[in-house]
Batch of 2 targets.
Target 1
Amino acid sequence: MPRQSPRTDTDGKLRKLGDAIRAARYEIGMSQEALADASGIDRSHMGKIERGERNVSVLNVARVADALNVSIASLMASAGL
């Protein structure tokens, strides 16, 4: 089976994860810039993650989850993954 790029994420997994990250961020009243800073990720890259335009590494998912004070498992569950 050929690998899918973020642009061919036909089942929307990247978008779902991005939506879950954004929802968790909104829930605690954190700006995208603050989340990016706390995660050690460039703000523009964080925006692309939230829009499902980037295939985020497990390490960066862990950094984002830590910055949001949630577990990776709960973040994935929120995304339906």
Target 2
Amino acid sequence: MADLVLANARLPDGRIADITIRDGRVFHIGSSDSVSGAERIDCRRKLCVPAATDMHVHMRDGTQKEKEDWKTGTESAVAGGVATVVDQPNAVPAIDTAEIFASRVSLAAEQACCRFAVNGSLNDTADIPSLVEAGVLAFGEMFAAPSSYGSALSPETIARVTKEAASFGKLITIHAEEVAPGAVHSLAEHAASRPASGETKTIALVNSLAPESAKLHYCHISSTESFSAMREGSTFEVAPHHLFLSYENARDAADTHMRMNPPLRTEAERKNLYAAFDKISAIASDHAPHTLSEKSADFASAPSGIPGVETMLPLLMNEVHAGRLTLSSVLEKTVTNPNRILGIESPALVKGARADFALYADSPVSISAENLHSKCGWTPYEGMQGLFPELTVVSGICAWKDGEFSRDGACFLRG
């Protein structure tokens, strides 16, 4: 017996079909006239696509639960068409022992409404073997430069921990920046203090320190300058804010809501990055929320980081709707490639595939923090256009439908 039928769905190839789901997997695509006993949802010929994997989120919680928690963070994810999130280990405390890792997983399991994994920290004291045994999916983001809740590692430590992580065959993700000392008081100063050239130099440094066997993935690349520095076989992600925002287009030259690491670049650099979309391995949100009160501090004191998991796909799908990006390229960089890089099964519209899907509205809307679900209560994309999903299915169960959330499809992805 089937569990769920998504009837009259428009598939990426343009066909109108019924998607029959059983036990969390696609059972049949075509007519469902003979199916009985299943929940049936009329998709009204709206676009149904595999739901995304966001391989770079900071779900906060614990000692930082005023910023975000697993409930609100994963509600944001599914409301934005994301079925799987990968939490970064620079939490407080850092995820550098099996005990802390287990506590983090338990905290997530109590609240999450999507599939989730938790990465292990690569810092001076990380117990890498015990983290592998405990079930980390990957290691990092490893900090080659300081950022919010992440201290820079020395070259000697980078060489040691990448060698040890590589010995277990685990993916190593890297935050590559070079940071000038001193306070910054504007978006332009922030960009100058963390230049694109430093990103490129740090990639080259890590390449020289990590063993050839290491599986390297570079996080939130902000400039096309860095593309040529990538080691053969390595992968990299770009965050939506570097595709859609620039410090030159900010409403205020010292707008703390536009402060993140790596920083926003010039409008010319943003356009170059967007034009190179097809060369990007993956798109990941770097969802890193802070409270409005924290962001209301003066620029020099305000923390870096913005929310983004709920708006990542809507921004990209709006570009598809407008004809500026192809649907196949967006699905490649938010579904196929992230899952391949992480080594996890990808959802697909074929029999037997994992049933994680998002059903998109016909028309975009203006993005407003009032309609988003992150606990932080703000968005840097206020007023921009986004094409949002009306329904998100996780493991064959409706995780987001008619404004309601379900945790029934959530699960921990053990590495």
